[in-house]
Amino acid sequence: MTLRAVESQLRVRYSETDQMGIVYHAHYLVWFEIGRTDWCRAAGIPYAEMEKNGLFIPVTRVEASFRRKSSYDDPIRVITRMGTLSSRGCVFEYEIRDPSDQLLAEGSTHHVFMDPTGKPCRADPRVVAALQSYREE
Question: Is the pTM of this model over 0.85?
Answer without folding.
Answer: yes
